[in-house]
Amino acid sequence: RYDAVRARAGGLGARLTTNLQGLQTIRAFGAARETATLTAESRGYVEANRAAIRVSSAFIPIIRMAILSGFLATFLIGGWLTLNGEMQVGAYGLLVFLTQRLLWPMTGLAEIADLYERAMASTRRILRLLDEPRGEPHGTHEAKVSGRFEIDGVGFRYATSPGGVTDINLAIKAGETVALVGPTGSGKSTLIKLLGLFIRPQRGRISLDGVPLADWSGECLRTSMAWVPQEVTLFSGSIADNIAYGRPEVSREEVEAAARMAEADNFIRDLPEGYESQIGEYGQKLSGGQRQRIALARALLIDPAILILDEATSAVDNETEAAIQRSLARMKGKRTVILVAHRLSTV
């Protein structure tokens, strides 16, 4: 029952977060349906909590009956022994006092048991999350990555959707810029996940520099690959902190050099506090194009041998798109770049 309460609380919290983030959309399309959904979530939480309260409330009368039984036994047995002269009156009074002092704190045991069960329900949810596979490779091979991919007959299908890839054959040379262009659902993002080893191919083989991708160590791959998604995730803090997210030990000069490569240095310096400007939660104080360039700078700071841009220019303005393309042009031949796009004109 307590697990159900925590599950309902998590669902309700997620719904509230989504509603707050999408408040403008809800207003634009009318909130009646979303309000009904939120009401249903709230009622589900109330019902789950009511069931848990019924269980916890049963502890209180049971514990109080145990306390009363202890007092009654003390009075009867102690009184009988005192009347028969087998116990002194002072000892009897002391026994009653000690019984009261020892048994009365047990009245809080029901509340403690309820708090314990609620805490354990939350702990079990956390432990289940920690037990989820990380998706990291299990290999141990480590070497300097040049960025040469060989994809032979690779296939992958999702169990819950028709998307995926079938019999993909592709060779990417080190330092080459490759564009994966196609409509939605053509498998571009799936192939990117396969190359990053976020998922494993169900058929075929992927090699990096002649070594099976699964044989590389996770640490080596993560420091050799950088990924810039379409939906950028920035963290509350300064611009400098976000650029240095993957390498917090770097100097300010290295942070600024990465920003210049991503064509972000100019707009950063135009801000009142420059690189120390606070970007707010999820980077809400910046435009979409500015967030995209900071994400590119963050990727470039780790100096990856392989740079993957997943629809990175699909939702930005022409100025940002041109800036990103200039950055990519300067990388030509220096690192392997894999671009994902809907249209060839955006590459």
TrEMBL record:
Residues 1-118 form the ABC transmembrane type-1 domain. GO terms for cellular component: plasma membrane. Residues 149-347 form the ABC transporter domain. It is a multi-pass membrane protein. One of its GO terms (molecular function) is ATP binding. It is found in: Cell inner membrane; Cell membrane. It comes from the Bacteria. InterPro entries: AAA+_ATPase, ABC1_TM_dom, ABC1_TM_sf, ABC_transporter-like_ATP-bd, ABC_transporter-like_CS, P-loop_NTPase, Type_1_exporter. This is ABC transporter-like protein. The lineage of its organism: Bacteria, Pseudomonadati, Pseudomonadota, Alphaproteobacteria, Hyphomicrobiales.
